[in-house]
Amino acid sequence: MKHKIVFFDMDGTLFQTTDGIIQDSTLAAIDRLKNQGYLVAAATGRGLNMLKPILDRVTFDYYVLINGGYVLDGDFNEIGAGPIARSDIQDLVELAGNNDLGLLFHFGDSSYIYNNFYPIYDFMKYTNSLDGVFYDQTQSFHHRHDPYQAIVLTRDSGIISDFIESHPDLRMDLINVRTNGFAYDLFHAGNDKASGIETVLEREGLSWDDVIAFGDSTNDIRMLEKADLGIAMGSASDFVKSFANRTTTSVYANGIFNAVKDILAEEE
């Protein structure tokens, strides 16, 4: 076989976010890959605590979590991490408090709401990711544990853009969702799924030539572009699709199964 490892985005790719479903055809496709000797890995913006509805049905060889900020092997041992600097976190806590922004932090295996509980709670519920989410009224958990990502809810894009501009070690992705305002992922500027994947490749002695990657969103672009075979889901925007080698059908229309079927036929 030409390729050796397959990385899957979760939401909108392997996992139907709004209804919490993984199609049986997707599970069958993953089993076929494993039986043919491929390594199968998750590459997601989710933290480990938010993967429960997925891990109940799928076991991965590696976990590239929190947009590459936290990387685990198949036994959930940490093999790579890129936390946000404590000083940047403290500035963000103050920004949220002074401007009434919704704020949540993803740590290694838990998530803590700091500000505006219900908008953040509603967002996490909408994305089927309430497992391991707690409320820290003291806003102090980051003093004892490393945060790898923040989620900020606000309708004021300028306030986030200004904050990022004054904090060059951070970058952001916009998530437009049907909740109270817009959601922004903030994380260390050096982290993305591609950097997390490189940690896995180094450990396995592989290169990007060995990689197949599936994704549907802007945070998947670099891994789709760098993979030898990048596959965009049918629901992806034309912009995201432009970075992939090919496109499959959507997560609701057996997208993973259809692509894997073609790939295995080609590689056999």
Overview of this protein structure:
This protein has helices at residues 24-35, 52-55, 86-99, 117-126, 157-165, 193-204, 221-226, 238-241, 255-267; strands at 5-8, 39-43, 62-65, 70-73, 78-81, 102-106, 111-115, 133-135, 149-154, 170-179, 181-188, 211-215, 229-232, 246-247. By secondary structure, the protein is of the alpha/beta class. The protein folds into 2 domains: 5-81 and 191-267, 3-Layer(aba) Sandwich (Rossmann fold); 86-188, Hypothetical Protein, Haloacid Dehalogenase-like Hydrolase, Chain: A, domain 2. Helix 1 runs parallel beside helix 9 (255-267). The N and C termini lie close together (6 Å). The mean pLDDT is 93.
Entry keywords:
single chain, 268 residues, alpha/beta, Rossmann fold, Hypothetical Protein, Haloacid Dehalogenase-like Hydrolase, Chain: A, domain 2, 2 domains, eight-stranded mixed beta sheet, six-stranded mixed beta sheet, 31% helix
The CATH topology of the largest domain turns out to be: Rossmann fold
Number of strands: 14
Question: Helix and strand succession?
Answer: EHEHEEEHEEHEEHEEHEHEHEH
Strand order of the largest sheet: 5-4-3-2-1-12-13-14
What portion of residues is helical?
A: 25-40%
Number of helices: 9
Mean pLDDT: 93
Which regions are unreliable across 5 or more consecutive residues at pLDDT < 50? none
CATH class group of the largest domain: Alpha Beta
Give a short account of the largest sheet. Answer: 8 strands, mixed
Using the CA coordinates, give the radius of gyration: 18 Å
Through-space gap between termini: 6 Å
Instruction: Give the domain tally.
Output: 2
Kindly name the structural category.
alpha/beta
Our estimate of the beta-strand percent is 25-35%
Q: Architecture of the largest domain in CATH? A: 3-Layer(aba) Sandwich
Gross morphology: globular
Could you state the CATH homologous superfamily of the largest domain? HAD superfamily/HAD-like
